[in-house]
Fold:
Amino acid sequence: MKIAGLGEKIGYLGKSKKQKQTMITLGEAYSIWKLLVMRYDALFTSKMLLDFTKDQDLKKIVTDGIEVLETQKNVLEQLTKDFSIPMPNRPAEDSNVAIDINTLTDRYIYRHIFDSLANTSFKHMSNYQRANSAYLRETFRNFLNEELDLYDAFFEYGKLKGYLNDPPSFR
Structure:
C-alpha cells in the first residue's frame, strides 16, 4: 500500500462511524456501493455458469475469478461497514437455476465472462479517478490490477480455444 493510503487508513483508526463518513465523498461512497452490487451480481452469475462449464481449463479460470470476486466482495463489505454505507441487497447464495444445459456452451460462458471483465475494468478505472482518498484509490487500483490479470488469463484461454471474435484485418 502506498504511504499516503497507509497514512489515511491509520487516520481512520479511533474515528466514529459519523466521523469516518465525513472523510469520504458521496462519489466515493457510491463507487463502493455500486462496485459491491456488481461483485454480488458477478459472483452469482459466475457460480451459476461454473455449474455448466465442461472444459476443465475454463473451470479453473472461472474458479480463480470467483476467488478474486470473493476477496473483493469482502473488502467492499468491510468498507461499507467502516463508512456506514447502506448495504445493497445480497443475491441468493445458491446459484442453482433451471436452464436447458444445451443452450449454455463453454463458448457462451467464456464470452459472457470475458465481456463482463472488459466492462468492469472500465468501472474500476472510473472509480479510481473519482476517489479523492489515497486509500480508496489504492483499493480501486488493486481491484483494477486483479481484473487485468484475470482479463489476460481469459484472453489467452480464448485465443487457445478460438473463442475470441477476431476483428477484421485490413491489408
The mean pLDDT is 85. The chain has six helices and no strands. The first helix runs from residue 3 to 12.
